[in-house]
Amino acid sequence: MFKWLHRFGSAPFVYRLSGALAPWVGSACAVLLGVGLYLGLLVAPADYEQGESYRIIYVHVPAAILSMFVYMVMAISSAVFLIWRMKLADAVAQAAAPIGASFTFLALVTGSLWGKPMWGTWWIWDGRLTSELLLLFLYLGYIALRAAIEQPQSAARAAAVLAIVGVVNIPIIHYSVEWWSTLHQPATITKLKPSIHESMAVPLRFMIFGFLFLFGYVLLIRLRTGILQREARASWVAQLPEISRLTQSMEFQRAQLKTAQTETKHG
């Protein structure tokens, strides 16, 4: 078993595995999001209090959930990198950070759009909103810290420490509606008896899983790119069919350019 798990520390194995999984994950993402949007926008009934405006939850709630989930993936990967020196774990964390920042930004924007008709304001400094904004700053801080340090290993270690320390914000986001007075409603779909009607909950579940597969798909693509950048000088990279075709194309273009320059001189 440990020998099988050890394969996930191999860059060539992970590169090929992610390439094989990406099309399937992307297809599942498209189906889930398509069904979720259809059910949520066209089939689910209007809310008796909020009317049609509540439908923004089909984007806001999945984005908010994924903003926390992606950070946990980033933090766990950072911990694995620091403890076992697994470089691919750091590659996963680095690939996940911009995706998580995007989900967090989307959650904040859609929350503001939803809050304006419901609360009468675009923003309020309550526990949930403030801690979610702090999460965005943690993502951006992680990305900026990696970019600010020139030495890759030092940058990876410093960013990993920041990611792990920032985990303390995740339970604050989740339990803020219970710990402090806030305009946000408590959990609705994670309770034993959800307080949302099943006709509204079903499309929301489709959207949550759709966003989850969207994260998986983008992560796989970014991870493959990151591996190529990290392993650019490795012999196995040069042997990849796509790299070989690219090299041959570049060599052909150089030959054409050289021929054109020679003809220009003689002309």
Q: Would you write up a description of this structure?
A:
The chain folds into two domains: 14-232, Four Helix Bundle (Hemerythrin (Met), subunit A); 235-267. Helix content is 78%, strand content 0%. The protein is built from ten helices and no strands. The longest helix has 33 residues, at 11-43. The chain is globular and about 80 Å long. The model has no long low-confidence stretch (mean pLDDT 88).
In short:
This protein is mainly α. The protein is 78% helix and 0% strand.
Defining key terms:
single chain; Four Helix Bundle (Hemerythrin (Met), subunit A); 2 domains; 267 residues; mainly alpha
Walk me through the topology:
Layout: H1 2-6, H2 11-43, H3 57-84, H4 87-119, H5 127-148, H6 152-165, H7 169-179, H8 198-230, H9 235-238, H10 241-266
Helix pairs in contact: 2-8, 3-4, 3-6, 3-8, 4-5, 4-8, 5-6, 5-7
Largest sheet: none
Shape: globular
Amino- and carboxy-terminal Cα gap: 68 Å
Uncertain residue segments: none
Query: What is the helix tally?
Result: 10
Number of domains: 2
* Computed structural class: mainly alpha
> Mean pLDDT, nearest integer?
88
* Computed CA radius of gyration, to the nearest angstrom: 23 Å
Amount of helix: over 70%
Order of helices and strands: HHHHHHHHHH
Annotated CATH topology of the largest domain: Four Helix Bundle (Hemerythrin (Met), subunit A)
